[in-house]
């Protein structure tokens, strides 16, 4: 396709521009005529002007402030990852738009979890919820919201009420086993979305944290969004801290820029955990941490404060608002060999046959109990 070829050629030329360098840039700010500001984070070789020129050429109906900005950057300009969020400042105050990117040449550092987005062969016992997810997404979200918040749905919203009831009923150990298995290998993304909700019935299981963090690494779809919500619920309900060292292979790529759509809530969650400390600096940050530092040097407190708080926890002291000292510190961290988080399943509903490459996703204790 001609557009794809031209975009590839543009990226290839960028790689030959030595004057642009590879240093991480501070977040760039684009001020719009209506008073809104667009913060572009993660730029290295590209500039805001270069992105605008490319958008004008290959997607003239879109812009950095458009609703489809992230999708255009990923699928037309071939950025390795992109996310866009809008911070509503209140009545009479212009909104702030955050556009986060990983540039095309950084694709090797973006480690998405490749999962199909099919809807074939839905799980029969969850079919009511998965059908509603496709046909009545508002009711599905309302039902999930009621389940997560342990609240009731508005009177008359029978579909949402039925979904919430279905989610509450599937709380047995067998349901948990099935949900973990579906999250790990099902091609049906709607089933995986329901599974991401159901595993939250077991917030103290170590496998729950791992399964949700894995689901947050999917490249597209509702699964990563529901997994992010589920992780927040689990963090609130859990009575004990997870083994973060065992989860490091799932956290490290996020802090470096994989799955930017869920990075901000993950940073906020980690920053609020009392057990996070300097012992996790190497597993979480060595040879990475670029997007975390980018967030920390934003001049917007809502974005910078959680990122800087997490960095301070991991270092044991605060190096200030500038990204330079933080990058220098991270560059000095000795490389840490992360375990492979790959999960191999031989039977979709029998976790007794599951083996995990890093011996964490399903602990030996859990495998014994599930038999």
Topology:
Elements: H1 2-14, E1 28-31, E2 37-41, H2 48-58, H3 69-75, E3 81-87, E4 96-102, H4 127-135, H5 137-149, H6 158-169, H7 173-185, H8 189-198, H9 206-215, H10 222-237, H11 244-256, H12 263-271, H13 281-285, H14 290-296, H15 301-315, H16 323-331, E5 343-344, E6 355-356, H17 364-370
Parallel strand pairs: 2-4
Antiparallel strand pairs: 1-2, 3-4, 5-6
Keywords:
371 residues; alpha+beta; two-stranded antiparallel ribbon; 17 helices; 6 strands; disordered N terminus
What does this structure look like?
By secondary structure, the chain is α+β, with helices and mostly antiparallel strands. It has a domain at 2-109. The protein contains 17 helices and six strands. 43% of the residues are buried.
Q: What gross morphology would you assign?
A: globular
Strand order of the largest sheet: 1-2-4-3
Counting helices, strands and paired strands, the structural category is alpha+beta
CA(first)-CA(last) distance: 52 Å
What fraction strand? 5-15%
In DSSP terms (H or I, runs of 4 or more residues), the helix count works out at: 17
Question: Which regions have little confidence, pLDDT < 50, spanning 5+ residues?
Answer: 1-21, 343-371
Alpha carbon gyration radius: 21 Å
Q: What average pLDDT do the residues reach? A: 85
The major pleated sheet works out as: 4 strands, mixed
Number of strands: 6
Helix content: 40-55%
Written as H for each helix and E for each strand, in order along the chain, the element string is HEEHHEEHHHHHHHHHHHHHEEH
